[in-house]
Design goal:
Blueprint: E1 6-10, E2 16-18, E3 23-25, H1 27-35, E4 40-44, H2 52-66, H3 73-81, H4 85-132, H5 139-162, H6 166-177
Parallel strand pairs: 1-4
Antiparallel strand pairs: 1-2, 2-3
Helix pairs in contact: 1-2
Length: 178
């Protein structure tokens, strides 16, 4: 069941009201809702106009104040310069592509970390099973493995009996020459 969209009403005095929680919220609380994966929509309380894009941009801007790691200055300048629709669409496409790439890399890193964790845990689990005395294989498997090993040993023994020893090999070689 998909979670319902949280409707935030923005009033003229810049206050934000969470209609689902029946409480006033700030930009940090809206950002926290979004980070939790909740769909959020911000609307003007008087006109009903959708202000979600503006509010999310404001959250990003507020975050950039605290950390100098926001969008590069030149990119921000280009966003301002991009006044016509084609340039804006290109910039939006570029940002979306960059973000999609970032998400793909993050997902790949998480997958690799998961693989590494399971690779690390695998020997630990094997050791636990060994120490706990849990049977590694069934007795039937052990019997068939034992039979196979016995057969292999007898084959090797018969081969070694068929091979001539070094002294015998020399005698055979000398007779052939002489």
């Amino acid at each position: 069941m998909p979670s319902e969209t949280v409707i935030i009403k923005k009033y003229g005095n810049r206050r934000l009201y969470d209609t689902s929680g029946s409480r006033y919220v700030n930009l940090d609380e809206i950002a926290a809702l979004i980070r939790k994966g909740k769909p959020v929509q911000v609307v003007d309380a008087r006109t009903g106009e959708d202000l979600t894009r503006v509010t999310l941009t404001q959250i990003i801007t507020e975050d950039a104040k605290d950390k100098p790691t926001g969008l590069p200055l030149e990119l921000l300048r280009q966003l301002i310069v991009a006044s016509d629709q084609a340039r804006q669409e290109f910039v939006m496409w570029y940002l979306k592509s960059a973000f999609d790439t970032y998400e793909s890399v993050q997902e790949a890193v998480q997958n690799r970390l998961g693989e590494m964790q399971s690779a690390i845990l695998s020997p630990v689990e094997s050791m636990k099973r060994l120490l706990s005395g849990a049977p590694r294989s069934t007795p039937q498997d052990d019997q068939s493995e034992l039979k196979a090993l016995r057969k292999r040993v007898s084959e090797l023994e018969s081969r070694s009996k068929k091979r001539p020893t070094k002294k015998r090999s020399r005698r055979i070689a000398n007779r052939a020459r002489g």
